[in-house]
Amino acid sequence: MSSSDFSHADVERAARYHRPRYAGTAAAFGLTAGVYAALAWSPSGSDLWRLVDGLGWAGSAAAWAALVVGVTEGVQLPVSWWRGLAHERRWGFSTQSTPGWLLDRLKGLAVALAVTAAAWTAVVGLARAFPGWWPAAAAVVLAGGVLLLSYVAPVVLEPIFNRFAPLDDEQLGADLRALGEAAGVPVRDVLVADTSRRTTKVNAYVSGFGATCRIVLSDTLLVAAGAPEVKLIVAHELGHRRDRHVVKGTVLAMTGAAVCVVVVWALLGTRVALPRELPVVLLVFTLLELAGLAPAATLSRRWERAADRCSLELTGDVDAFERAHVELARKNLADLAPPRLAYVLLFSHPTPPERLALGRAWAAAP
Ligand SMILES: [Zn+2]
């Protein structure tokens, strides 16, 4: 780490913010797994199941899915509140009221209920109709669901939580479109999200593909960063588009869904036709997710480095690269020296010092 970028006090302060958050993430994983295990095998789980038993297989599957998702959310609520609101307020990031935060949770819960109930009812139905080859059918249906959700997310899911407006700075918009032309990925939509109604943190991302593809900048970013830094960040997002990271990520998620089905088939066989088995299935998914964290983070960091190099190639602006990444790190209080385990499992991006080193290596290369 170059000592001029961040002081020892910066590193310490970021660590004080992040260490409890890692503990919160671990607690959330543990609680989720514990709730699924309790719902699967404890007497209270059986009592709850009796509330929905006898609704017919489809009714039981959908209602049990709603109950399982609802109970899990309820047990998680204190940890979610601490992670999403209390700790964020304490560090001056959250701009949300408690009712506003609760409304977000309710919306998220409604989406989770709908998706889980639909998926579980489909899987139980397939296992009942085709006991011999339900895994093949379920893998196709779940992978198709992942593809559909990834495609419609920018126009169906994201607007549930944020409002998006076209960038209204015409000069900047023209510059960004020119960058897109240079990258060989013409930009149709650069949108601004009303991120400031939840947080002071800054952010940019690319989502969707084909007709739903767009680059989204947080309104907080436009306030915090100058035009050269915004261009640099959009050039980074163009790198993701040029290398088709959203499409590749979606294909990987579809493959992951199919793998989950195969593992569940190996463990449960035709018991999947019983709606009662959902908590076991979700527990298996949670453990597979845990096993997938490190490979997913490794791949994501590789894609982020590729996008960082693209941002440098497109703009040639090493100064803006350095300013943008120092400013992003300060604004979001990014962890500058994370514990090894947190880095391996959770870091979708290289640390700010790693990104700055990449920029300087790029500038120094002949
Ligand atoms: Zn990125």
Secondary-structure content class = mainly alpha
DSSP helical segment count: 13
Biggest β-sheet: count, sense, barrel? 4 strands, mixed
Q: What is the 3D form?
A: globular
What ranges have pLDDT less than 50 throughout 5 or more consecutive residues? none
Distance between the terminal alpha carbons, to the nearest Å? 22 Å
Strand order in the largest sheet: 1-2-4-3
Please give the number of β-strands: 4
Based on CA atoms alone, the radius of gyration comes out at: 22 Å
Strand content: under 5%
- Small molecules bound in the structure, each named once: zinc ion
Percent helix: over 70%
Question: What does it look like?
Answer:
By secondary structure, this protein is mainly alpha-helical. The chain is built from 13 helices and 4 strands. It has a 4-stranded mixed beta sheet, sandwiched between helices. A hairpin with a 6-residue loop joins strand 3 (204-207) and strand 4 (214-218). It starts with 7 loop residues before the first helix and ends with a helix. Zinc ion (ZN) is lined by residues 236, 240, 304, 307.
Write the layout of secondary structure elements.
Layout: H1 8-41, H2 43-52, H3 56-90, H4 98-129, H5 134-161, E1 164-166, H6 170-183, E2 190-193, E3 204-207, E4 214-218, H7 219-224, H8 227-242, H9 245-268, H10 278-315, H11 318-332, H12 340-346, H13 352-364
Parallel strand pairs: 2-4
Antiparallel strand pairs: 1-2, 3-4
Helix pairs in contact: 1-2, 1-3, 1-10, 3-4, 4-5, 5-9, 6-8, 8-10, 8-11, 9-10, 10-12, 10-13, 11-13
Bound molecules: zinc ion.
Zinc ion (ZN) is lined by residues 236, 240, 304, 307.
